[in-house]
Amino acid sequence: MRLLDDILEEYEFLEGDERYRLLIELGRELEPMPDALKTDATLVRGCSAAVWVYPTEAKNADTLHFLADSNAAITKGIVALVIAAVQDRPAAEVARMDVVGALAPFDLKSQLSSNRTQGVPNMIALVKEHAARLAAACR
Length: 139
Hints:
Elements: H1 4-13, H2 16-29, E1 51-55, E2 66-70, H3 73-86, H4 91-96, H5 99-103, H6 108-111, H7 114-117, H8 120-137
Antiparallel strand pairs: 1-2
């Protein structure tokens, strides 16, 4: 998975449809999520498209690693951006992190319809809640 800074560098050079294509490409680059994990328990509420996020075992006990997917290409790219912000980082760092601020340079609200971005806060909340739980367990 690409680092968020690298994605932003590329994103800033692009315009309009090219940015959509980059988001779609990012979605395609997500680590595959087995269909068996796409359940009601992993479904992110409030998204216009179906979005699933599942925390998995990371290489280090205090590090976050997520599998994620969506049934809509652009939404899957947005999911990939959120995951890129937190993937393989220490849980305590993510629990304190301003994920919304990290994604702000992408200006998704003006680039995409509100339908596409309405579930982002719920996705971020889910990731941060998991990070806080893991960080507390590793103390």
